[in-house]
Amino acid sequence: MTDDLNNADDVIAIFDAAVDANLDAKCRSGSIDEISAPGQLIATGDIHDNPIHFAKLVKLAGLTPEHQEHERKHLTLHELIHSDRLINGMDFSYRTLARVAKLKADYPEYVHTLIANHEMAQMLKSGILKDGVKCVEVFQDALIYIFGEDASRVEKSIDRFFRSMPLALRCHCTKPSGGRYDVLCAHSLPSPGMMARFDPSVISRPLTDDDYQPRTGSAYAMVWGRGYDAELLEDLVERWGVNWFVLGHEHAEFGSTFVPPNAVILNSDHANGVYLPIDLSAVYGPEFAMESVRPIAELPE
Question: Global pTM?
C-alpha cells in the first residue's frame, strides 16, 4: 500500500473510494451484500486491529496483486477497530481500517465489510468500554495526534465509510446433492429481548436514520445482540429464508462456538483465532461447518 496513512488527504481519498465501492458494487442489494455459487468464501470473526491475522486472511483469499483473478475468494471482514494494544493511551486502528477500505476499493465484488457494534458506536459517538478503555475517545485521540486540525475531516470520512457498510452477506449456495442452501454472515443478531421492536425487513431494504438509533433501531439491534436461543434462531431462518448463520461478536475461547440449531460463531482476533472456508457450490449444515473451521495461526505470513 503506497498511500501515506499519516496524510489526511490520502486517507480521506481511501475512505471515499471505499464508500463508493460499498454502495456501487454489483453484489450490494439494499442493506446487504449478496453472492451466489460458484465461488469460495473465507468467513471470519472479529478482527479488532490484528494486522498479522488480517494480512494472512487477505493472502489466503488471493486478494493481492500477486494473485490471478481465478484465485480470488470472497472475504468477510468486521469488527475492525478498537485495538487492545494502545500506544501512549491512543488507538491507531484507523490504519487497519484504511487498509480494509483500500482492499474494498480494489476488490469491490470480493471484500464484504460488514458493520459491527464497534464501528457503529464510533460512528454514533456513543460510549463503549472495553477493558475499562473508552474506545471512541482513544480512537479520536489518535486521529487528533496524527492529523491535527484535519482530524475532523478524516473522522467524517471514516463515519461515511461506516455508514456505507452492509449489515450482512447473504450467500446463495447449493448443496452437494443439489438444491439451494443459503448462509447469512453477519456480525451478530438481535437478542431475544430486542425482537419485539426488531424489524426483520431491515436486511431487504435500504437503511434509514432510525435503524441506527441506540436501543430502538433494527440495524443497532443486529450488531449488539447476544444470548440467542433456539426459538429466535429458528424464527429468523424462517423469516429470512436462510439455512444457517455465521456470526462474530461473542467471545469464543477456542476460536469458534456452535449455537444450536444453526449458528456458528467465529473469533479471528486472538491467539486461537479462526476462519471458515466455504465452497458455495458444496455447502452442508452448520455442524459440518464447525469441522471445517481452521486456525489462522497455521497460515503462512
Answer: 0.96
